Each structure stands twice: as C-alpha cells, then as structure tokens.
Amino acid sequence: MFSKINSAAMVGLDCTPITVEVDVSPRWPGYQIVGLPDTAIQEAKQRIRTAWKNTDLQFPHNAGIVINLAPADVRKEGSAYDLPIAVGMYMATEGKEFSLLTHAMFVGELALDGSLRHTNGILPLAIFASQHGYTELFVPAVNAKEASIIPHVTVYPAESFKSIINHINGTELILAMKPVSVADFFEATTYEMDMAYVKGQEFVKRALEIAASGAHNVLLSGPPGSGKTLLARTLPSILPQMTTEESIEVTKIYSVAGLLPTELPLVTERPFRSPHHSASGVALVGGGAFPKPGEISLAHRGVLFLDEFPEFPRQVLENLRQPLEDGIVTISRAQGTITFPARFTLIASQNPCPCGYASDPERTCSCSQMMIERYKKKISGPLLDRIDLHVEVPRVQFEKLSQSELAESSQNIRARVEQARERQQQRFKNSPYTTNSEMKNKDIREFCKLRDDSVDLLRQAVTHMHLSARAYHRILKLARTIADLASKDDIATEHIAEALQYRAKSE
After folding, report:
1. At how many degrees (to 10) do helices 469-485 and 202-214 cross?
2. Is pLDDT above 70 for 255?
3. Which residues pair with 33 in a beta bridge?
4. pLDDT of residue 181
5. Which of 151, 254, 273, 481 could be a cystine partner for 214, CB 3.0 to 4.6 Å?
6. How does strand 328-333 pair with strand 116-117?
7. Average pLDDT for residues 179-206, to the nearest whole number?
8. Is 95 left (phi over 0), alpha (psi -120 to 50) or beta?
9. CA atoms within 13 A on the CB side of 471
C-alpha cells in the first residue's frame, strides 16, 4: 500500500514543504529511505523499528518498505522526520485512507520506547503551516506551547507514537492545545544589573543612553577595572521592551538554533550575547555545512558584547563589517544561499594598550610605542568607522566609589529611551526601519535636515577630523537620536556637537 504524510524541512529560518511518501509491498523485501537523507535520517530506520515494537505494533518484517522524502533534490537533515515516516509506514501497512491527513503536518523525533522528544524549529514550522493552509499540526508535547502562539492552526501535543495511532483510529483523541496569546508571556522584567549601582561614569552612561535610544554601536576604551564590562552588562536594563513582532523574530532564531527553553516558548527579553574572544568566524556570524545562526543572529534585536575587542582574531572581526551595515548576514554554500537577520547593537570594550594603562594618569604604561601601535592595528579602520560612539572610560575615583547615595536608576533612563523610540516608530511607520541607526541615505536627507550653523560646524569637523562619508552619515544619525532624546523635531547645533565628541579622536 501507499501513503503520503506532510512535513517540512528547515532552510535557514524558513521552511520548505516535504512530502513523506511510503510504499509497503510484499514483492521486494527491504527497508530504504531515499531523497537525500543525512545520517540522522538513515538511522531513523532503527529508531522507528524499535519504537514500533515497543508500541505493540506488528512491524512488516517480510515487506519491502521504500520511503521517499520529496522533493528528492532538497537535502534533508535531522531527526524531525521520525514521526512522519512512522505515521506513513503505519498508514501504508494498515491500508488506511491517507487523504484523511491531507491538511495535517507531522514533525518529531522518536525515542526507542515510542515517546516523542524535543525537536528544534517548531515555531517556524507552525508559521509555515498557518500560512500555507495546513489546519492540523502534530508535534511533541514539549514543543506544543511554542507552536500554539501561531493562530489559524490546531496544535496537537503528542506524548508518543502510540497516542497518535490511537488518535488516527479514533480510540483515544489527543486534546488540542488552546491558542495562547503572545501578550500572556510579556511580564515586567527584573534585571540583576541597574545603573543606580554604577558609581560615577556619568559621561559613559549618557553615551549608553544614546546608544539604547537609537540602537547605535559603542566602543568603550579604558584601563582595567574602570567598569567597562559592568556598564556593558547593564545596558539591557535600559533597553525598551520588545514588540510582538521582534519577539517572534528572535524566538524563530532560538528555536532553529535549539536554544529555546522548553518552559519559555517565547523570547520576551532582548538577547545579550557575549562570546569569548577565541570564537571562530563561523561561531560569530553563522555557517557550517548546513548553515546555522551565529552569535550575531542570536543577538538580533539585542546586544552583542565583545569584551577584549582587540584579542579577537582580525579576520573574525572583519566578518562583522557587512552585518553591521546591512543588519543581515548572507551565507553562501554550494547548495544555495541563506540569509539570517543580524540587527544587533554592538558593544565592544578594549584596553588602550597591551598592559592597559596608556590612558591612566595614575599608573605608568609599560608598553613601547611600537607595541601600542601594533595593538591598535588589530582593529581595522573600516570596522572602527562603523562604530558610532567611541567612549573613554576613566578610572573611578575613591570619592565616587565611596558615595552611599544611588545614581539614577535604569527605570528612569529606560523611560527616556522608550520615549525616543516612540518618536522613531512614528517617523518610520511607513518604512521597514524601527531605529535611527537603520536609516539609509535617502532617509537621512529627509529626516536629518540641518540649519546653516549646524552645516558650518559639520563642515569644519569633516575637514579637520578627516571624516569619511560613512562617518558623516553616522554623525547625522547619532545627532538625530540625541535630538529625539531631547524631544526636538529639528537637529540643532548642540546635537551635532555632542555627536561629534563621540567620534574616535584619531580621525
């Protein structure tokens, strides 16, 4: 007998439909899976055989079983095809009418006892099913909450292969998941870090407030122990709450990467990723034989913190240039091209020299000038040009450290950041952008108009600081954010002046 079961394959963050075709015939004994399966799918034959036995079903030992994963020219990987293959074999063996499952999709990995294990990529699969007219989705019970946030598809949480067989036969129906509202997962977030407990560093806090308001990139430079890492890790506490669209974007990435906790089916807090400086280029930007999202995609709509910036291999850092500009990373392989979102805020920290004390007035630097120059050249000029705020983080004096009163809280700063973001949302309501840092040249001409005195100041800065065209446009975007924080419609001279002081002094 013959049967067909609907499933899907992950291609990047999207799905492509896969039809599991099963033919069971007594004429040619054998057990084959064709259609470009990887090793995990080939091993499914043994998992299914054992799960079938432990489900008290009679496996068709003397029959010829041919399983085709169509289309045959799309590479398939992973264990998520276990369930659709097993269901297809049962339908074909028992002679069931497979047209009953025309609008249903199946996905899940089988354990040897017939239970269903956690499977990656369920949220993109649910989105695909909803968009393409599939009305029923059978997934492992541990993934059901993740799928139930997508409307217009009925999600069945299956504990085991046997429960699905009983459901198909009508002997014991699986209760469908109740639709879950995305708003139910958004709660008041509490942060371990708070700006109130950061002593001194008012200038750096101001820079981080601007960065949070417009999603601008920041480079913190200062001696060891000045608070660079603490300030960077406190940044999430002043970022605005994610929107529903942003939350689903981020959750899709974490679902595909297998990093979505089973008890948290929706990511509602902005990501904060801090890879070690030994990370490879593939780990940072994504890739591999079957491309997976890297750290920059896992930091989408959040913060990517690169501590000890110059210690990263230069070639690894150069991979950031295109994502910082475009907000996406495109990975090309022989099988095709995959694009992952990478709209993150980069926070980098560095010492001014190998020993760390070149900018410290209280300690003597032990590095030669050649060592300092070599250290600085680890980061290329084009990469530095893509960083909007270059901030010196000085040593904190004892008087500041010993103060008992708290500084301004993150909650108060976040209120100003959210107000600035609201102005940007109104400005870009008819465009795909959400923050000032995403503006293109056409948008800069429209939204960053300057008065004559501001033009004169900027002309002098471009001439004397030898600014590139990219730096010029980034100054305008930064000034636009500073004006938004001041609730001003026009960019004034003081906004340009403040934006200019955050450029690298060597330019």
Report:
1. 100
2. yes
3. 67
4. 80
5. 481
6. unpaired
7. 85
8. left
9. 25
Residue 126's pLDDT is: 95
Q: For position 505, what pLDDT does the model report?
A: 62
The C-alpha atoms of residue 155 and residue 128 are separated, in whole angstroms, by 13
Strand-pair category, 2-11 with 14-25 = antiparallel
- According to CATH, what is the number of the domain 195-411? 3.40.50.300
Domains of the chain: which residue ranges?
Answer: 2-180, 195-411, 439-507
Short-list 309, 293, 425, CA closest to 11: 293
pTM of the model: 0.92
φ and ψ of 191, to 5 deg: -115, 140
The two beta strands, 389-392 and 218-221, are parallel
b/e 44-63 (16+ beta carbons within 10 angstroms → b)? bbebbbbbbebbebebbeeb
Measured between alpha carbons, how far is 387 from 475 in angstroms, rounded to an integer? 10
Assigned CATH topology for domain 2-180: Ribosomal Protein S5; domain 2 (3.30.230)
Tokens of 93: 């063996």
